[in-house]
Amino acid sequence: MVVRAIRRFTVRTVLPAPLEPLGELAMNLRWSWHAETRDLFESIDPETWAAVGHDPVRLLGAVPTGKLAALAEDRRFLARLAVAAEDLTDYLTGARWYQSLPEPGSAPDGAPAAIAYFSPEFGITAALPQYSGGLGILAGDHLKAASDLGVPIIGVGLLYRHGYFRQSLSRDGWQQERYPLLDPNELPLTLLRSADGTPARVRIGLPGNRELHARIWKAQVGRVPLLMLDSDIEDNEPFEREVTDRLYGGTSEHRLHQEMLLGIGGVRAVREFCAITGHAQPEVFHTNEGHAGFLGIERIREFHESEGLDFDAALEAVRAGTVFTTHTPVPAGIDRFDRELVAKHFGGDNAVPGVPVERVLGLGAESFPGGETGVFNMAVMGLRLAQRANGVSKLHGDVSRGMFAGLWPGFDLAEVPIGSITNGVHAPTWVDRDVLDLASRELGPGLVEEARGWEAIGKIPARAVWDMRRTLRGKLVTEARTRLRASWKQRGAGDAELGWIDEALDPDVLTIGFARRVPSYKRLTLMLRDPERLRSLLLHPTRPIQIVVAGKAHPADEGGKKLVRELVKFSDSEDVRHRIVFLPDYDIAMAQHLYPGCDVWLNNPLRPLEACGTSGMKAALNGCLNLSILDGWWDEWFDGSNGWAIPTADGVEDPDRRDDLEANALYDLIENRVAARFYDRGPEDLPGRWLEMVRHTLVSLGPKVLASRMVKDYVNVLYAPAALAARSMATDGLAGAKTLAAWKSEVRGSWPQVRVDHVESAGIGDAPEVGNTLDLRVLVTLGDLRPSDIEVQVVHGRVDSTDAIVDGASVPLKPVRRDEQGRWLYEGALALDRTGPFGYTVRVMPAHALLATPAELGLIAVPAEDGGVADGLPLR
Question: What reaction does this enzyme carry out catalytically (predicted)?
Answer without folding.
Answer: [(1->4)-alpha-D-glucosyl](n) + phosphate = [(1->4)-alpha-D-glucosyl](n-1) + alpha-D-glucose 1-phosphate
